[in-house]
Design goal:
Number of strands: 0
Number of helices: 4
Radius of gyration: 25 Å
Order of helices and strands: HHHH
Distance between the termini: 66 Å
Number of domains: 1
Largest sheet: none
Helix content: 25-40%
Shape: elongated
Structural class: mainly alpha
Length: 131
């Protein structure tokens, strides 16, 4: 997947939000930007956390920070803050999307095309065959 980055005007709005939010430690601006771009990469790619490119940092550290933000509802606050800003609509994370295995949506199973094999237990109760 190509690089996922914020435009400078988008980033300034995001960083301003983080600096003014009571439950967010903004810290170094470059680190905050890298974290948010990592989360954006994950949400856009749909990849597992372990597949996060190394340039975004250690996947487990990014995941733990993401999970803390989920628990403290920072993502919801961010969504509410930017929901009326048309310049930020493509950056708002939709937390209502839940990925399911294809068979949960009615897709055919891998064994659908296979022919059933008789099991050994079927013939166990029948009379012995003469030869």
């Amino acid at each position: 997947m190509s690089n996922v980055t914020f435009r400078e005007d988008e980033w300034q709005k995001m960083y301003s939000f983080m600096q003014n939010h009571p439950r967010v430690y903004a810290g170094k601006e470059a680190d905050c930007r890298l974290f948010l771009e990592a989360v954006l990469w994950i949400t856009r790619s749909g990849a597992q956390w372990r597949l996060l490119p190394e340039k975004y940092g250690q996947w487990n550290s990014v995941y733990k920070r993401f999970a803390r933000w989920c628990e403290t509802e920072i993502w919801e606050d961010m969504h509410q803050h930017f929901v009326t800003d048309p310049d930020m609509e493509n950056l708002i994370l939709d937390s209502s999307v839940i990925r399911a295995h294809p068979c949960a949506a009615g897709a055919s199973k891998k064994t659908a095309g296979r022919r059933n094999r008789p099991s050994a237990a079927v013939g166990a109760g029948s009379a012995p065959k003469s030869t």
